[in-house]
Specification:
Order of helices and strands: EEHEHEEEEEEEEEE
Radius of gyration: 16 Å
Shape: globular
Strand content: 35-45%
Length: about 170
């Protein structure tokens, strides 16, 4: 059966403060990352807070994409990553308690692959700007929501094939 769990924090004067909704029948971040196919780039930017819900299974799935995923315990830190299932690719990963930006020009090399687009990425935790941006050839693809904002670029099709968001502060479920 499809159901949702509403999560609340108790506030002042017995007021309940909503923190989000978990739908356990939806797919998880692990399921999503495991659907990445060969020759697909995975672009990740965290907004606000995106580490509390990270599980060892998420870390294992990210490592299959060439990422170290050293996020555990880095509450409200900024995080940018470019990984994927691309032979000969050198992944990029940045994690810091300040705002992060990444710019790659068309033709930039990541190991043995050449980036076929202009890329601008930005990540800022809650205390340093609270933003996620993933711009490819001038178009914004990040959903700019709390947690992990993920864009999938297919190198064979030469196009963005998906843009997804997981509120990894609350859980790993969509």
């Amino acid at each position: 059966e499809n159901y949702k769990i509403h999560a609340y924090l108790n506030g002042q004067n017995d007021k309940k403060l909503p923190v989000g909704i978990v739908n356990p029948n939806k797919y998880s971040l692990v399921d999503y990352l495991n659907t990445i196919t060969d020759n697909q780039l995975v672009l990740i930017s965290i907004k606000d807070e995106g580490t509390v819900g990270i599980t060892p299974e998420v870390t294992a799935s990210m490592r299959k994409l060439g990422l170290e995923c050293l996020l555990k315990g880095k509450v409200r830190w900024s995080y940018l990553a470019v990984g994927g299932k691309v032979e000969g690719m050198k992944a990029i990963e940045f994690l810091d308690d300040t705002e992060l930006e990444l710019k790659l020009t068309k033709g930039s090399k990541l190991g043995n692959i050449t980036i076929p687009f202009e890329l601008y990425m930005k990540s800022a935790g809650f205390d340093t700007g609270n933003i996620s941006s993933i711009i490819i050839d001038g178009q914004e693809y990040s959903q700019n929501k709390r947690g992990m904002n993920i864009v999938i670029y297919d190198l064979d099709k030469k196009e963005v094939v998906d843009s997804m968001h997981f509120d990894t502060y609350l859980s790993i479920y969509k």
